[in-house]
Amino acid sequence: MAEAKKLPVPQGNPETAPFWEAAKQGKFMIKRCTACGEPHFFPRSICPFCFSDKTEWEESSGEATIYTFSLMRKSPTGPYAIAYVTLKEGPSLQTNIVDCDMDKLKIGQKVKVVFKPTDGAPLPFFTPA
Amino acid sequence: MTIKGKAYIAGIYEHPTRHAPDKSTAQLHAEVAKGAIEDAGLTKADIDGYFCAGDAPGGLWPMVDYLGLKVRHMDSTDTGGCSYLIHLGHAAEAIAAGKCSIALITLAGKPRTGPMPPRAAGAEADFEAAYGATTHNAYGMCAMRHMHDYGTTSEQLAWIKVAASHHAQYNPHAMLKEVVTVEDVLNSPMISDPLHRMDCCVVTDGGGALIVTTPEIAKSLKKPLVRLIGHGEAMKGPRGGKDLDLTYSAGVWSGPRAFEEAGVTPKDIKYASIYDSFTITVLMQLEDLGFCKKGEGGKFVADGNLISGVGKLPFNTDGGGLCSNHPVNRGGMTKIIEAVRQLRGEAHPKVQVQNCDLAVAHGTGGLLGVRHAASTCILERA
Prior knowledge:
Number of helices of chain B: 13
Oligomer: heterodimer
Number of strands of chain A: 8
Order of helices and strands of chain A: HEEEEEEEE
Helix content of chain B: 25-40%
Radius of gyration of chain A: 15 Å
Structural class of chain A: mainly beta
């Protein structure tokens, strides 16, 4: 899906604009709460764990491991690998694994972030490290 | 306060259609409403509460008007396929609180005739929409991880479809009536690894409806008495990505709440209606409800254990969503209806569970691998 069809343009909003601004610089940002110390993704202004408003942007290493995946074979735009990956910093997130041999993907495999262009801010995907 | 025994299901109706290009969605709602009202032996004027979800065109305002209802209580909670299990619990609460005395719950739609409108976007849209999560691959991701963590196999998942097909052969309205084998399931095309085509439910037009009422009114009617004695509801999502675990559902919370309220345990259950959007949905929910330990669902469902008259836990004796009907891609309504048929003794004789006095109807709604709700209803023959 990542390559086969035109990617949607992130709409953004005041809460998430810094994420998309950083993405334009090739940086993958997460949020961390300075009250409870927990990182989270996708970014919120109020911590989803302790509900403190003391959350800060933090650049992620972009390094992750595959938690699970599925190869979507019945798609009008061609097969694609949807996955959850777990960032080195802790949070897990939904993504596609791209630029890879999909039949060789494994749970636990190391992957890294890669940005793909849209007509607006680029979108993050992951690819084997 | 408890809802235990304070509400009875007095009317049920499942639309016999599985393909309705010649009807409107509102019309299907009206037809199932009429069916359930007549099953209860009531009239439309008796209805004073109405419940519908996202499948009802335009929501409460147009539906109440279109159906010509005059209600004093209404609820449009939408949690996807389990909405109607939640509605049943909420109707019992409303009846126990005196807010209404005869509630109507309807579900209807036509996804087989044409595609359903997309869901409204949530706060996560920019961070997820591009990745193409669908029902197939979201449940596929759950199955993939369950296999990784617990050694669950495709053969074990296939037994769930096999059991459903054994039941569907006796349902004249079932979309798929052919009995299938484990090999048939494994040989069907891979849709989204590790789920094969036969691990997936059918897509059907149609619907169903319920009438929920007070003990006094139910006892004044002619149908065998079926009452709600426990109800639970819960929600689960990735919650900021912390400690992601896709091998369990929100059923781990809704189930215990319902069983505790009912004062029974999974061992007491004679029949189980378990939402079967996919085979993995059934396996995970049986674990989450406590019919077996987490991770042992594969062994539990194998070798016909879910087949009525063969195994220890007869499930989805109408053929379920895997073989019979999955109106509007929302399985909760038909789960309640078949449980009531079993408790009334109105299931097909070939699949009727002997002395069926206690049943569970359970389902999830949304995407099991992303965000979903779950609801559990414990039903008893009174």
